[in-house]
Amino acid sequence: MAKGYWMAHVTITDSENYPKYMKKAAAAITSMGGVYIVRGGDNQVVEGGLKDRHVLIEFPTYQQAVDCYHSADYQEAAKLRQAYGESDLVIVEGIKDL
């Protein structure tokens, strides 16, 4: 079964309050089996244009990644993310035979 991933690109617009989102999101994500692979850090955009911050979260399955996003706990956190930043978020299925 393939793993699932959240790939997010974020520009934080309210750095004072954004940690509220990070705390609430981390609790929802880890409770659904998610593990942060990338959460901010140094980066170089070498092609195209992206937002400032990049996040990659791995889930045991694609379905768990989808379920986490739609969970009540994460949707509460998402409201904070939307209030304190601008983001693009995609849920993708990993390669099945790895």
Describe the secondary structure blueprint for this structure.
Elements: E1 4-12, H1 18-31, E2 35-39, E3 53-59, H2 62-70, H3 72-84, E4 85-93
Antiparallel strand pairs: 1-3, 1-4, 2-3
Helix pairs in contact: 1-3
What labels would you give this structure?
31% strand, Alpha-Beta Plaits, 3 helices, 4-stranded antiparallel sheet, 98 residues, alpha+beta, single chain, 4 strands
What does this structure look like?
The protein has 98 residues and is α+β, with helices and mostly antiparallel strands. It has a single domain, classed as 2-Layer Sandwich (Alpha-Beta Plaits). It is built from three helices and four strands. The protein has helices at 18-31, 62-70, 72-84; strands at residues 4-12, 35-39, 53-59, 85-93. The protein has a four-stranded antiparallel β-sheet. The radius of gyration is 13 Å and the shape is globular. The model has no long low-confidence stretch (mean pLDDT 95).
CATH-derived topology: Alpha-Beta Plaits
Number of helices: 3
Overall geometric form: globular
The assigned CATH architecture is 2-Layer Sandwich
Radius of gyration: 13 Å
**How many distinct beta strands?**
4
Round the mean pLDDT to the nearest integer and report it: 95
Level of helix content? 25-40%
- What structural category arises from helix and sheet content? alpha+beta
SSE arrangement, N to C: EHEEHHE
The main sheet orders its strands as 2-3-1-4
What is the top-level CATH class? Alpha Beta
Tell me the span between the first and last alpha carbons. Answer: 9 Å
